[in-house]
Amino acid sequence: xxxxxxxxMLFALTIPLFSYDLTLPYDISRKEWLEYEAFKxxxxxxxxxxxxxxxxxxxxxxxxxxxxxxxxxxxNGENPISYSAKNNYIEFVTKIVQRIIEKYEWAEGVIILxxxx
Length: 117
Fold this sequence. Notes:
The chain has a 3-stranded mixed β-sheet with strand order 1-2-3, with helices on one face. Helices cover about 50% and strands about 20% of the residues. α3 links the parallel β2 (about 65-75) and β3 (about 110-115). α2 (about 30-45) packs across α3 (about 85-105). It has helices at about 1-20, 30-45, 85-105; strands at about 55-60, 65-75, 110-115. It is of the alpha+beta class.
């Protein structure tokens, strides 16, 4: 029994040694790449805005349809913005995401949904 417990503990201790090796190659999926690319580009473009916004990017596959959903909101401490400003932000972020989708041929057909809450 002691040998069994010892061998299980020994095996469990070796798992972190292999899982934390950052030199091992990792190929991200197209889903991860598209989410990252959208997040990065939106972040770069919106950092210069007078009103800070927070956003979340998610790529969902529902019944074989890929949807890239971007949710925008004013950042903590910012005053609420007008309806027309929200529409301007939505339009601007939609254009950013459209440029990304046009850049990658394999992303063609992804539906873009940008919302401001």
